[in-house]
Amino acid sequence: MAFNVIGKTVMKSLFGKPATAMYPVIKNEFYPNTRGNIEVAIDKCNFCGLCSRRCPAGAIEVSKPDKKWEIDRTRCIVCNFCVQVCARDSLSTQRHYTVPMTDKSKRISTSYGQTVQEDA
Ligand code: SF4
Ligand code: SF4
Questions:
Q1: pTM for the structure as a whole
Q2: Residues with Cβ within 8 Å of residue 83, at least 6 apart in sequence
Q3: Is 107 exposed, middle or buried (0-12, 13-18, 19+ CB in 10 A)?
Q4: Residue 4 CB coordination number (10 Å)
Q5: 85 Cβ closer than 6 Å to some ligand 2 atom
Q6: 95 with 51: CB under 8 angstroms?
Q7: Cβ of 76 below 6 Å from ligand 2
Q8: Is the model's pLDDT at 4 over the cut of 60?
Q9: Domain boundaries, the chain
Q10: In ligand 2, which atom is closest to the CA atom of 79?
Q11: What backbone phi and psi angles, to 5 degrees, belong to 40?
């Protein structure tokens, strides 16, 4: 009995379709609630820093004097909390694949604003 089960498993492994996807050559379909990357619309950001203070992973750094917003992609757990707290709708979760990271020095994405927009 156990031999039959093992035999079926072995045959399935040998002749079945691979369980893994050939990412990034073949891209899977996205599910409606798939969370990909956090993106910033820097022109809407007023550098209030709320997203940085609320990020549970410490992935975001904001500098108002430098008009700088940056995210460490290796720290981000894509919890979406920053998107929810941003009052200016500057942040969004994009459902797209990213190129696998081979160089850790490229883990930080930095965006600079042109002008600081103050709320009226
Ligand atoms: S992205 Fe939103 S919450 Fe974060 S600093 Fe900019 S305006 Fe503030
Ligand atoms: S999605 Fe979550 S972990 Fe990633 S930057 Fe936003 S708050 Fe931080």
A1: 0.77
A2: 38, 91, 92, 93
A3: middle
A4: 8
A5: no
A6: no
A7: yes
A8: yes
A9: 30-112
A10: 2
A11: -115, 135
What are the beta bridge partners of residue 53? Answer: none
Q: How long a stretch of residues is the chain?
A: 120
Whether residue 120 has pLDDT greater than 70: no
Note whether 89 and 116 are within 8 A (CB). no
Q: Do 57 and 76 touch, CB atoms closer than 8 A?
A: yes
Of 65-69, 78-82, 101-105, 108-112, least confident by mean pLDDT is 101-105
Q: Which has more pLDDT, 24 or 105?
A: 105
Whether CATH 3.90.1300.10 fits 30-112: no
Distance between CA 27 and CA 21 in Å, rounded? Answer: 8
Q: Give the amino acid at 119.
A: D
